[in-house]
Amino acid sequence: MLLRRRTTTLLVYVLVILTLIALLFPLYWMLVTALRPGNQLLSYPPRFFPTDLTVETFRRVLSETLIFRWFLNSTIITGATMVIAVPISALAGYAMSRFRYAGVRETGYFLLVARMLPASLLIIPLYFIFVRLGLNDSYVAVIIANTTFVVPFGAWMLKGFFDSIPRELEDAAMIDGTTALGALARVVLPLSLPGLAATTVYCAIITWGEFVFASTLISGADRWTGPIGIASFNQQYLVQWSDIMAASLVFIVPVILFFAFLERYLIQGIAAGGVKG
Amino acid sequence: MRISRTIRPVLLALAIALAALGGQGTAQSITLDMPSWQATEPGTSDWWKALIADFEARNPGVAIEFTHEPFSGYNQKMVTRFAGGNPPDIFHMPAANFMVYAQEGWLAPLDERLAAADAPVLTEWSPVQPTCSYEGQTLCVVILGYGYVLGWNQAAFEEAGLSGPPTTSEELIEMAQALTVDKDGDGTIDQYGFVFPTVTHAGVETTAGSFIFEYGADAHWVDAEGNLQRDAIKYAWTQMRRMIDDGSVPLGLDNNGKRQFFIEGRAAMMLEGPWIQGFINSAAPEIQAGLQVAQTPFGGAVYGGASNVLAVPADIASERQELAWEFIQLFTTSEWQAAYATIAGQPPARKGVLDAAFLAANPNMEQFVQAAAVARDYLPPAYVTEYTRFRDLAVEATLSAVVQDQDYDRVLDQLQAELRRLR
Amino acid sequence: MIPTPTTLTPTPAPRRRLTSAARSRLFAVALLLPAVAVVALVILYPLLMAAQMSFYDVKVFRIARGFTGNPHLRNYVDMLSSPGFWQSLRVTLYYVFWGTLGSFAIGLFTAVLLNQPFRGRFLARVLIVLPWPIPGVVAASIFMWMFNASFGVVNYLLLTLGIVAEPVSWFTQPLPALMAVLAATIWKGYPFFTITLLAGMQSIPGELYEAARVDGASASQQFRFITIPALRNVIGISLVISTLWLFRFFEVIYIMTGGGPSGATETLSIQIYREAFQYFEMSYAAAIGMVTLLLSVIATYLYLRATSRSFY
């Protein structure tokens, strides 16, 4: 939906800025907390533009903790999960979109059911499985677990996006001699880049922030992922607020950069009758 | 001599293998797995590492892998490990979680070993060591047994023209009111006299418990048959309610907020365990100078308990159990117990290991030791096995009575009914 | 008569129907197999264990021991006769409904807004997504501080703007506590909708809007009659995903209110965690889990029915 007149553009700008301020205020608050010394966080009335800022917390978090190690570990796990989970989801989503056999529907529902129980009920049997497989304290276990989380929703998300691509395009390709798989690869996938990008972003965000299974299946501070590292700033009685806020803000940077990279695929219009840029 | 090209790599591999085997010598080497949330905690981690280094020096061929596990989620992970058949070798746990491991039979009984080794755990240990008993067996050893102390801001007292910390709870309430001030006259209170948690959090129960203990030498939430000690509880709630009505207490804080208020000088007094030292150390220098520690003003009744304990898992190889026990024994020596105070800054569980000179030079430590020596365990005489559930019910009841202003008898009736439903 | 070319040369049927139905089926199975394999191999066993556990008396689940005694329905009876359960059920439905609605509304609004052409759109899109990867516990902490009755910035703003006369005690009263946890939850949840709906909007051909404008349709009419119908399937599935997520999500509530005051924010997911890893009554937790699963199935079915003409 495109509104083209000048005044509406001004209105859009105003709305965008107001919306950004309202929605990002908590992040700004996190930043302010991270930039103030840990023992001076509770001034009232709240000072929106405090003057006594210090980068000491950021310096300490970046140089005295293993945060870059945690980034690396998170990147490995997230990258591997994406490479495995997104194609699997795409295949399944395509099947759910194009094939109307009875079993397909039930399979789709089965995938969703796998995501209907909370982690606390699944963790012990799952841990047992991985220990038995010799995957205790291994990234492989975490990658497999994360794939299991991402695939059900990823498949359904992609089904939704594939549904909006007319079947006639594949039929036309196949009349010309392409195989079904080729039609998927050469016709459907390029048109569903926004959907693929959205699903990939979803996968990245879910895996990047996953805590319960990563913390159970991995041990050792140099093997932690980011969320575990951030959680480790909580001692039994002492909570290091500034450190947590600083580490969290630093932690979301890689995945946001990744999103920025994918963003142009996210908004790529379809070639046929393509809309804006 | 020319060695054929196919033989060369085989010889090389053989040589490496022989070198590796030869290098090991005849000593067996074992690595004990010891996860802990204190692996990087300032103070305690230094003490652990020194203790571990000493243990490794005394036991060549044995190494302890001391891994850091985040405190949040620690118990969940440990339960998962035990349930999944992969327990650690030396088990360090928060005492609050002890019951599930005891009930599942996951901990090795230590009584025989304690008796055979003539360990001071049976005689000169923290008064809350009975926390580690389950069905007549000792299943763990208390590391930190604590009694609550009163943190008070001397600078705030002097500004308000008050001298010294309160010594009775009536003084506490009066002084709290006098210490609640709006310093700059802008209508908002800058400093509260006293602070305790007023949201759903275990800290609510510890505050109420402190007042309950003051009521009588045997006063507790319940008696041994599980009946609520209504007078004691009503007394505690009344005292808490008075401070809230006086406006001396900020509403809506949890334990973390309480501590943050105290170290930023926004609250003049709070109840806390000996770990208050860590908070005081983290306060800004100008405030830190005024923060003091005193005994709680409850007529000698001190609320306390065990903070964390050491245990030996039952389902590990007996050789590892022996080594874990050796480690615990080293931990109980007076040398390492004294080091718990000098290095970790916390009161040792073993009695009489600190000399008077040290205590005189460290007045806060003297307060901690004094409080720990007379502490009464927060565990009630009944509902011990369902303590977590009991505690949550007590917290909700206290909040209903004290913050939401409901009728005490009605709340107590409901609490009693809910407790009855707990098996 | 000489046969004409048209009768001699049959028109080739589309290749898919040319292949036997069996090959087509096989293809569908092959496409689905990796997903089903991964999910089934990993989740099926724990899922069945959890379901089975709800019929026994397990305090802590241990595979080695198996399930002793006879299966029974006592956990379900206890659950259904406990007032805490029914309160949790109400709170859960309230939380899931408003959480989904709030996230969806903000997500849709921001998606439409960010679909407009304007300079700096790229930056705006990146910024709008920032709350999504913030860990739940961190989001809970910052919102807890913002909503604090004594020093929180929310009360400060409300007082300064004259919206309230005295500070709201957010966490000691039921409704404000719910509003606070919903605020944190929606903040973390809306970017998912923003991205998904934005991606979905990309496949709506621009000509439709052009034609509508030429016909004199207003912006809101374009929205109602072009945008929303075209996004139906995407809306449906994203609502399902968000709802299923909210049924299980508990970190925010656990940290902000612990389920209080007096259970006003205690959802089923909080209860499950408590029963499983605080009270160690895993059979009872599993029974509640089965109820959550049932609710999820019902919600999924309703959503998919309502938002899809040609769905299943």
Q: What is shown here, in short?
A:
The complex is a heterotrimer of chains A (277), B (423) and C (312). Chain B has 423 residues and is an alpha+beta fold.
Description:
The complex is a heterotrimer of chains A (277), B (423) and C (312). With 277 residues, chain A is an all-alpha fold. The two termini of chain A are 13 Å apart. Chain A is 71% helix and 0% strand. The radius of gyration of chain A is 23 Å and the shape is globular. Chain B is an alpha+beta fold and 423 residues long. In chain B, the strands form four sheets. In chain B, strands 3, 6, 10 and 11 form a four-stranded mixed β-sheet that branches. A three-stranded antiparallel β-sheet of chain B has the order 8-7-9. Chain C is mostly helical and 312 residues long. Chain C has 15 helices and no strands. The longest helix of chain C is centred in the N-terminal third of the chain and has 33 residues. Chains in contact: A-B, A-C, B-C. Chains B and C meet through helix 3 and helix 17 of B and loops of C.
Task: Compile the SSE list and pairings.
The complex is a heterotrimer of chains A (277), B (423) and C (312).
Chain A: H1 6-35, H2 56-64, H3 67-98, H4 102-113, H5 119-132, H6 139-163, H7 167-175, H8 180-191, H9 193-208, H10 212-217, H11 226-231, H12 241-266
Helix pairs in contact in A: 1-12, 2-12, 3-6, 3-9, 6-9, 7-8, 9-12
Chain B: H1 7-24, E1 30-36, H2 44-58, E2 62-68, H3 74-83, E3 91-94, H4 98-103, H5 111-116, E4 133-134, E5 137-138, E6 141-147, E7 149-153, H6 154-159, H7 169-178, H8 202-215, H9 230-245, H10 255-263, E8 269-272, H11 276-282, H12 285-288, E9 291-295, E10 302-311, H13 318-332, H14 334-342, H15 356-361, H16 363-373, E11 375-377, H17 387-402, H18 408-420
Parallel strand pairs in B: 1-2, 10-11
Antiparallel strand pairs in B: 3-10, 4-5, 6-10, 7-8, 7-9
Helix pairs in contact in B: 8-9, 8-17, 17-18
Chain C: H1 5-8, H2 15-18, H3 21-53, H4 74-80, H5 83-115, H6 121-128, H7 136-146, H8 153-160, H9 174-201, H10 206-214, H11 219-230, H12 232-248, H13 251-256, H14 268-277, H15 282-307
